[in-house]
Amino acid sequence: MKIAVISDTHNLLRREVVEQLKECDVILHAGDICSPAVYDALDALGKPMLTVRGNNDGKWAVEKGIPDVVDTKWEGLRIFMVHDKRDIPSHVLTDGGGYDLVVFGHSHKYEELRVEKTLFLNPGSCGPVRFRLPVTMAVLDASGGGSSETSEMIVQRIDIQTGKTKSEMREVSPGEMKTLVIRVVKDIKRNKSAAQIAKKYKISLELSEQICRLYLTHPGVTVDGILGKMGL
User: Fold this and answer.
1) Number of Cβ within a 10 Å radius of residue 160
2) What mean pLDDT, rounded, does the chain reach?
3) pTM beyond cutoff 0.90
4) Which ranges constitute the DSSP H helices of the chain?
């Protein structure tokens, strides 16, 4: 059994990610999907899917019945999943709590740790580029199956190519982001494309497209509203 583990798609479902998901038997998403459109696109792949709500998943996620916590047994594996590591119960953090797999996200940073027989995994973010963090996901080969064989679970970190080199883009600090969004909104009103905006400000196309999409699909949204939807 191959398990795709993703998190923090933030309105962006990359083609490369979809290709990986198609090769897996089940999808785990640790939250911050951020739009029903992305959720529906994942659901349309026809794979069993376990998801939790992230801090940027709104009323739509509640209406779809996405829980805050997943605590289940799947094909012999005990799985616990939340969005934020800080919401993992202390006894689980201490010794794994008897789970085979504990999944979380939120930080956008890949993390893989084994405690006793428990695998703790943050697959990182496979959505828009955030600062200098890599775009990642994970694929688990659990063909051994069963709690007694969890140590045989093979973890593959997948690094997603974003099509940009470091020399082609600059890092945008949290303090700069509001100014950037203000300027991008002005350029959108001038009918500039996402590609033109990305080139002008030397930012990733993914970031440019995300800002443009949030502005164009939420009539009347403010700059602070855009930042909020981006989780900033």
Assistant:
1) 19
2) 88
3) no
4) 15-22, 36-43, 59-63, 90-95, 174-189, 194-201, 205-217, 223-229
